[in-house]
Amino acid sequence: MYPETEMKLVKSIKSGDFLLSNSEFRQLRFLGFAGDILNRNLTNAYAKLRAAKKDPLKMVLTLQERIFIVENVFRDGGKYTKEVQESFQENFGAERLPHRNCVSALLHKFKKTGSVQDKPKSGRPKVVTDTVLQNVTNKLQRSPRKSLRRLSQETRISLTSTHRAVHQLKFLPYKVHVVHELKPQDSEKRVLFCRWFENFILEKDNPRTTDELKQKITSVIQNIKPDELECFSKHAASRSFMSAGEWRTLSTVIVDHILLHESILNRTLVDKAKDKSAQELFLNKQRNEEFMNVFV
Q: Which domain of life is it from (predicted)?
């Protein structure tokens, strides 16, 4: 028997027994599945609707709106009249008109608790509070080199919460390796080194191979004085925390200091160049005079 002509017996409560083909049976079964899915979705929708009816204050009202409703309803004898609705729309807009169930639940809540505010929410309390942030700030200002683990132990909060608190306070972890004293002459040497390095990069006779580059770098380094190299080997020392404002202040001071010394250095270099050019002109004039005396 072919599948298309195969018959199945389906029992119906209303019309008794009747015969269906295989394709019709598949269509009926598909409609049954679709009906089950639709039934489940409708059940969920009705459940949400019932929950909303049980708590009509799910329509979010501000504290001012709730106080306004309670005051005006009690003035009109405890009834949510049309005058109260129009007055509410004039003050808060036509789209914000609450349902009568919402008003009824709000009045019941006010009579029962004496307040129109919501109950405190149940859930995990916030760890990084304002008190914790103030405590972390005081400890970091007192000891900036304190590690996060030690800070976590002293504040008695988890390491993750400590990291979150430091991040909210905008403290940046900075690990310093060596601390050196910067002297006034170091700034000028820094500018000299930067100028030399810039000229070294912009030179036309740049090395083409690795051996030429090594040879040139070696010869240049040998000509630099030890005290000039020392001022550029000054790095950082133990761990400390600096705020973003301190970073901006420090960078501004450094930039202003370098620009000041750079302007002084530029004037010095210009004066030296003038002296050198004048000296070369004098020597050339002297050589020309000596050369002409040979033929006299």
A: Eukaryota
